[in-house]
Amino acid sequence: MAEETRSPVARYIRRRRYSPWDTSFHVVNYTLIALISFICIFPFVNTFANAFSSSHAIQAGKVVLWPVDFQIDAMKSVFWDDNVIRSLFVTIFVTVVGTAINMVFTILMAYPLSRRDLVGRKYFLNYMIFTMMFGGGLIPSYLLIKNLGMLNTLWAIMIPGAISAFNVIIMKSFFQNMPDELREAAIIDGCGNMRYLLRIVLPLSGAVMATIGLFYAVGHWNSYMGAVIMIDDPDLYTLQVRLRNILLLSQLDTSLEVMQQEGKLQVIEESLKAATAVFATVPILIVYPFLQKYFVKGSFLGSVKG
């Protein structure tokens, strides 16, 4: 009976018969993990609480981990700002189209590099790895985009990063782990290279494709520097650039400023900033749980062999 009343951790330690030193190590280890996890989660929780707290509670410093005097005026301000909504659709377009471009080019590069019979495979792989070590720099990249006529267009933030060498290596390693007998059987059945890739390889690569797709999608959603440098048209601002303007420059839609002056919305700057940060973060967080199992599985399977 006493055994059943013990905590799961205590029963586990008793079962394994850890020495005092092992027990101390586990206590310190779990304490550090809990502390680091809290430090990582606290900023987002605090931001979320500020987004749904009243102006008086925020100014009084009462908001820490949960909303105080719950209200949604700050979120209303964000949703009623036409510029923020426009930036949201721009970011969704960049994320969806950009990720599709990334996946197509990554697959078309990773599959040939996974074939041991590719002539010059070693040199192509070394050239690709070279790009991970050295880059052209900001000014040459800007001049290249300008000369290609993509300046001040959404293509300027999607095309330059169409291929990531790191992601190509992960996908190449996954393709290499597939048994050669599978390809030999496909050749006997009359499959060419492209048909074998589309009909056999890709359907078996759902885990690694979901992993790489998540990497690319998060990168596009959070992209900031490229949009700031390459785009001047306010109608093409991404959500992250719009968030920056609100956080640093306090740029609000004129209609919202009028509503605040008339007393229809009781929102202070700190609450508005928090609401905008939540608005920009939550959509990508919603996608992650659906891809988590593929993310973990793909990360391990893609790194078994080089």
Write the layout of secondary structure elements.
Blueprint: H1 2-5, H2 8-16, H3 20-51, H4 55-59, H5 73-79, H6 82-114, H7 121-133, H8 138-147, H9 165-176, H10 180-188, H11 193-201, H12 206-221, H13 225-230, H14 239-249, H15 254-261, H16 269-301
Helix pairs in contact: 3-16, 5-16, 6-9, 6-12, 6-14, 9-12, 12-16, 14-16
In short:
The chain is 71% helix and 0% strand.
Your description of this structure?
With 306 residues, this protein is an all-alpha fold. It folds into two domains: 2-51, no CATH class; 76-301, MetI-like (MetI-like fold, Orthogonal Bundle). It is built from 16 helices and no strands. The chain is globular. The model is unreliable at 253-265 and 302-306 (pLDDT under 50). Belongs to the binding-protein-dependent transport system permease family. It is found in: Cell membrane. The chain crosses the membrane at residues 21-45, 88-111, 123-143, 155-175, 196-218, 274-291. Pfam families: BPD_transp_1 (PF00528).
